[in-house]
Design brief:
200 residues, alpha/beta, six-stranded parallel β-sheet, 14% strand
Length: 200
């Protein structure tokens, strides 16, 4: 039996995925979570074999969940199911140890097949995305990405400094580095470009 936890912030999608997977005789949906923090608590409580997660969620993103699982060396495989066909996301997902990456517009039976493949130790990645993922490298480091994401959400450098326990000057340096690496004029353009490329 493949024991699955679902993490998806849209209730209708979460319900549909759960219903679809429960039709499979070898897959059991242990539970579901509507945000990243709730998913993390459920991971620790239920200890699933596979986490099926969206990328964009409140609290922790699907990528951040995958990174935590990887850092703590938990024996849990991760499959990302997303609407974002952005190569940058796939690249970061693979670096975070994700075993599967599917687009939400793929046929429903692909998810069950991906679960079986990943559970056996294989990988299941959308082939076109896999080709595109290596076409352009993400120039940002983790801290620059974090600071730029918060700036793009409208937070001031002082707010970001407080939230991340950094000095105001350090935050400004990270933003300046990100703007320089992306070759744009300001933090708003940097945020837009990085989002468009799937680097945030």
């Amino acid at each position: 039996m493949i024991r699955v936890l679902l993490a998806e912030d849209q209730a209708m999608v979460r319900g549909a995925l759960s219903a679809l997977l429960n039709l499979e005789s070898d897959i059991e949906v242990l539970g579901s979570a509507a945000d990243g923090e709730a998913a993390w608590r459920e991971i620790q409580r239920l200890k699933p074999d596979v986490l099926v997660t969206d990328i964009e969620m409140p609290g922790l993103t699907g990528l951040e969940l995958a990174q935590r699982i990887q850092r703590q060396e938990l024996p849990i495989k991760v499959i990302i199911v997303t609407t974002f066909a952005r190569p940058g996301f796939l690249r970061r997902a693979l670096e975070a140890g994700v075993s599967g990456y599917l687009l939400k517009d793929a046929p429903a039976e692909n998810l069950a097949e991906a679960l079986r493949m990943v559970h056996r130790g294989g990988r299941s990645i959308d082939p076109q995305l896999a080709l595109d993922a290596w076409s352009e490298a993400d120039p940002l480091n983790d801290r620059e990405r974090q600071v730029l994401r918060l700036a793009g959400e409208g937070q001031s450098a002082s707010d970001i400094a407080t939230q991340l326990s950094l000095s105001h000057g350090t935050v400004r340096n990270y933003l300046s580095e990100a703007i320089g690496k992306l070759g744009v004029a300001n933090r708003i353009e940097a945020y837009r470009l990085a989002r468009q490329k799937g680097w945030l």
